[in-house]
Structures are given as C-alpha cells and as structure tokens.
Design a protein that fits this description.
32% of the residues lie in helices and 23% in strands. Strand 6, helix 8 and strand 7 form a beta-alpha-beta unit. It is an alpha/beta fold and 513 residues long. Helix 1 runs parallel beside helix 16.
C-alpha cells in the first residue's frame, strides 16, 4: 500500500466571525470543549455544543435561512484547489487492486500534527468537491492540522479507476482502517508528520466513518487507539432507507436522478445492467445493480478484523447495517445533523439515534441537532467561527500529545496621543488587509473604542514567518493570500493589556510547537 503523487466564480468566505456578546463568544465555548473534564466523553462534548446552540443560537444564526440561499452560497464558494501550493493529488493503492484518489494538504513543515482523514459525500471527487470546500478551509487553512481528503466511492474517477463499483459504510470503513494503519506504519514517510489520526465524513462519507469507529476497537494496537476521534456531518445512518427515500420522493427524486446521471457517466461499463432504465429511475437502477452484483468488501483483507459474528459476504444491505454489532466503542463519535435535510432525511437517520429509536449499545456517541441549515450548509446558516472553532477544539481535545505555542507581539501605547484614552475598558476589532504577492508581512487595521465611546484606529504588521504555514514560493498565490486572511480571522486575538502600568496593544496567536 503506498501513496503516488500526481504531478468559479462565487462567494469567497474569509472566516471572519459575527459580532456576538461575551457570553456567546465562540472562543470561550471552544476552550470549554477542550477542558479535560468535558473531553472524556463525546456525550458531554456534544451536550456542550447543543447547549451553546440553545443559549446563543439567535446570535449565531445568519440571515441566510432560506433553503435556496443556503445551498447556492454553500456550493458557490470560491476555493481553487488546483493551484493551491499546499495541496497535492495522491493515489492510494489498496489491497484488491483498489485505487483511491485523494488530496493531501500539508502545512509545509516537518512538525508532527494531527491528521484528519476527510471522507467526501456522494459523487464527490478530488477534482470536483464543492460541498466539502468549506470544511477543507476550516480543517486545513484555519486549524493546525494536516488533512487527507478522499474521494467518495460513487465518484466518476473511482468508478473509472476500479474494476468493481460499490458504496456505503462497509467498504469505506474498511478502507479507513487500512489507510490509518498505513499512516501509522513507520516505513511510510508520511507517518513522520502524523501525531494522531482523526476521521471526519459528510453525507454518504459518514457511514464509513461510523463503521470505522467500530472497527477501530478491533484493529488498534494494544493500549493505543489507531484513530483518536470520529466526526460525521449530516451522515447517512440507515443506508437502505435513505436510498429508498432518494429514489421515491417525487420531484426531488427526479432532480437527484438527473444530477446522478450527469455525475456517473461511464458507470454502464462497470454495471452493464444500468444501460436500460425507466424515466427518472437511473439512481434506482444503479443501486439495484450494485446490490445484485456485490461480491463483498472491495478492500477487505484478513488483516482487518471484523466485529465478532460479522462476516464478509455478498449481502450488501446486511453488511451496511452494522449497527447490531455496534457495542462499547471507546473513542469519541460526534454526529452533527440538521433538522431540514432533503438529501439525508433527519427522521430516518440521526434522529433515530438521538431519540433512542435505534438501540445502540455504546455511550460514547452523540448527535448534535442544528435547527438551521440544509444538509451540511452549516457554514452559511451559522456564524462561520461556530463550526471552525468547535471542529478545531474537538480534534485538539483528543490529541493529547500535540502541543501549541502562544506567540505574542506587544506595542506600547503610552505616548501623549493615547493619554486618558484607556481609562476604563477598551474594546478592539480588526480587519485583515489582503497580503501583497511579495510581502513578508500582513497588515491589520485595528479599531479601538473606549468606555466613553471614543474611537481610534491604527495599523499593525505581522510577519508571515511566524504563522502556522511555511511559504516556500517567492510570490504568494491568490489561494495563499485567501488562506492567510482566513487563518488570521480564526486564530488572532487583539486586546489592550496593562504591562508595567502602561497600556499595550497585544496581538497573540497559537502555532504548533
């Protein structure tokens, strides 16, 4: 098993958060998520996020509450992965002659960091992953993690590059374990920068994450979990019911069918039975052919241990209903789901866990329910920092050996110009200027407001060399410039502090040690 490196217009999210009260400050709640007393349990961590939504939801929600607005803004985010210097295409060779394409995002240094394996949703490939863009920005550009984005088994590339076609949690879950084993193998060069492994998946990439959380129990080295944490966004929980819902819901099914037929060009070569199908029954026929021709796990090998009583077979639906075997999972599993979901209906998926209709014999799994958003559009429906900060804190809370270092720059503000201004409390806000191509610094425009309502503004420059990336190109690309702005908006703290009796502007941020 090895890695082989291969040689839009829309909304550009900056990662800038909304203005909220001190009580609802996202950084405060995110730090609580990392408290060891909270981090011991996914139930407690999920409860904390749910409490945050209940107490501060009105401040965290945006005005983009309509379904069409949510989806349009979500799918038209600008993110140029093809020219991004920190992203590289990879091909992972798995047993059974399975080839899986991915996008590897590395910070450019040799520090050991948490690595997040990100399983994409239905039809998504590394060439076209619109629904996953926001989460890539949060996980890689705004957090101290390296990321491996993997194509879904329903992507056109996976179908073209492999002799068999399948999808669902059973196959992807086994793949997740094999890839995690590879990343832990000291003979794999990439393992040198891996501190811990975490798996996240969205939509149809979710069931593989959930199955691998079960497999993790039986495939981890003694005393050390192979994978430290799991997070599923709007995941498919009941695969059979969800696929039936997608193909039997009138107008929505017709739209999804047309979309699927466009995305799955070439599937007829792998599944000849799909050549003929009734009007708007393409997806239904494709799923039926997968079930009919299924021969067991595409990447299953004896080195991956299944739960006691579970055996590899040709029963596609049976293997993908792994919940009867789901018992006593030790590592945390958090599920985020929206009430309104036309792709993965909440009532037949995550809600069945939250209301205990599905009897799961494991306490370390928790559903967080979001009243706004439509099938994973949370970065549009809510304040961007909510998702970014909570994800970052969740992964950090389960990365016990990874340490961060706090950097600080102080500027004394004690001259005549500032006299009397700092009596009482002073609030600060800032805007990030877009970096120049050849600049080694990035400028902030800082606004200060004192207790009497008087305002002052000033500029402040930060060295790029002190950030959590290593810029090796002589000129910054547009992708890098956008990344810098997003990283600063997520990680920078600006405040007025007293040092030796004099007011100082203090700018601070954390980087990996």
């Amino acid at each position: 098993m090895n890695f082989l490196f291969e040689g839009i217009l829309g909304w550009t999210p900056t990662g800038e958060g909304q203005s909220v009260t001190d009580k609802c400050n996202t950084s405060v709640w995110a730090s609580r998520l990392q408290d060891p007393r909270v981090a011991v349990s996914a139930q407690i961590q999920g409860g904390l996020v749910q409490k945050y939504l209940q107490e501060c939801g009105s401040q965290l929600q945006t005005e983009d509450l309509g379904e069409m607005v949510n989806v349009r803004r979500y799918l038209t985010m600008r993110y140029n992965a093809y020219e991004h210097p920190f992203l590289r295409r990879v091909v992972i060779n798995l047993p059974g002659n399975v080839k899986l394409k991915g996008l590897l995002a590395l910070k450019g240094d040799s520090k050991r960091r948490p690595l997040v394996i990100f399983r994409s949703g239905i039809f998504s490939s590394i060439e076209d992953f619109r629904p996953e863009r926001a989460w890539m920005m949060m996980l890689f550009e705004q957090s101290p993690f390296n990321v491996l984005l993997l194509e879904n088994l329903t992507s056109a590339d996976f179908i073209a590059n492999n002799n068999q076609f399948s999808f669902g949690g059973y196959d992807e879950g086994i793949q997740n374990i094999l890839i995690a084993q590879m990343l832990r193998n000291p003979t794999e060069p990439l393992s040198r920068v891996v501190d811990s492994i975490h798996i996240m998946g969205m939509s149809l990439g979710g069931p593989g994450v959930l199955f691998s959380s079960l497999l993790n129990k039986y495939n981890s080295p003694a005393g050390t979990p192979l994978i430290q944490s799991f997070l599923a966004l709007c995941p498919v929980i009941n695969l059979k019911e969800t696929m039936e819902s997608l193909t039997n819901s009138g107008t929505r099914s017709a739209f999804i069918d047309l979309w699927g037929r466009r995305r799955l060009r070439g599937i007829e070569e792998k599944l000849p039975g799909v050549v003929q199908y009734d009007s708007f029954k393409f997806i239904h026929k494709a799923v039926s052919e997968v079930v009919r021709t299924y021969h067991g796990g595409l990447s299953y090998i004896n080195s991956v241990k299944l739960p006691p009583g579970m055996k590899d077979s040709e029963d596609f639906w049976g293997l993908n209903n792994f919940w009867p075997y789901y018992k006593d999972v030790s590592e945390p599993v958090m599920i985020w789901a929206t009430d309104h979901d036309f792709m993965v209906p909440y009532a037949i998926n995550a809600q069945k866990i939250s209301n205990k209709v599905m009897k799961i014999d494991s306490r370390n799994i928790r559903v967080v329910e979001f009243p706004e958003g439509y099938h994973c559009t949370l970065p549009v429906a809510y304040d961007w920092k909510l998702s970014s900060s909570m994800f970052q804190s969740y992964v950090l809370s389960h990365s016990p050996h990874f340490k961060m270092r706090q950097n600080k720059l102080n500027m004394e503000l004690g001259d005549e110009e500032w006299k009397e201004f700092f009596v009482g409390t002073t609030t600060t806000t800032y805007k990030v200027e877009e970096p120049g191509k050849k600049k080694n610094f990035v400028n902030l425009e800082i606004e200060l407001k004192n207790s009497k309502g008087k305002e002052k503004s000033m500029s402040f420059s930060l060295p790029l060399s002190e950030f959590d990336f290593r810029f090796h190109n002589p000129e910054l690309t547009n992708s890098e410039k956008e990344m810098i702005v997003r990283w600063i908006n997520q990680n920078l703290s600006v405040a007025v502090v007293d040092i030796a009796g004099k007011p100082n502007l203090q700018v601070s941020w954390a980087v990996a040690q």
